Amino acid sequence: MPAMLFLPLPDLQRPLLAKFYRAHRSPMRARGEAQLWVARTSEIVGGLCLTPVADGHWLTGLFVAPTERGRGVAAGLVAVALAATNGDVWLFCEPELGEFYQRLGFAEATDLPPPLAERLARYRQSKQLIAFVRV
């Protein structure tokens, strides 16, 4: 098996992450203003987006191909992306994913930047989500 690489996706290759999400019928999106990160062997097997907000970033779009789950791909991808990122990092997740993010150093967030607080309030009208932050 080829070595797993975790790296930022160059702007010219941004459509590759969108294609990866679509190929797996994932609702995730490669947002235009976000820095995109991927896990890849010979092809992309995972991705995430880091969108600038306040004095930090909002982590969205974390998705790993089903065939690669349980192998540490998501944890490795998050670790490498955050090591190259300054400031706090916030995310929203479903309650069953809380323990995963806590193992990665995230804690439940009680104070969010206003744009994220507003977004979370809207999302919570139709979903049960928890906000996390890593300082």
Keywords for this entry:
135 residues, alpha+beta, Aminopeptidase, seven-stranded mixed β-sheet, 4 helices, 7 strands, 27% helix, globular
Describe the overall structure.
This protein is α+β, with helices and mostly antiparallel strands. It has one domain (5-134): Gcn5-related N-acetyltransferase (GNAT) (Aminopeptidase, 3-Layer(aba) Sandwich), CATH 3.40.630. 27% of the residues lie in helices and 31% in strands. Strands 1-2-3-4-5-7-6 form a seven-stranded mixed beta sheet, with helices on both faces. The termini are far apart. 30% of the residues are buried. The model has no long low-confidence stretch (mean pLDDT 94).
- For the record, the CATH architecture stands as 3-Layer(aba) Sandwich
How many domain regions?
1
Structural class: alpha+beta
User: What proportion strand?
Assistant: 25-35%
As for the CATH topology, it is Aminopeptidase
Model regions low in confidence, pLDDT < 50 over at least 5 residues:
none
> Helix amount, in percent?
25-40%
Q: Determine the CATH superfamily.
A: Gcn5-related N-acetyltransferase (GNAT)
CATH first level: Alpha Beta
Question: What is the rounded Rg?
Answer: 14 Å
- The strand line-up of the biggest sheet is 1-2-3-4-5-7-6
Main beta sheet = 7 strands, mixed
The tally of strands reads 7
Please provide the ordered H/E string of secondary-structure elements.
EHEEEHEHEHE
Number of H- or I-type helical stretches: 4
Shape: globular
Instruction: Give the termini separation.
Output: 35 Å
Q: Output mean pLDDT.
A: 94
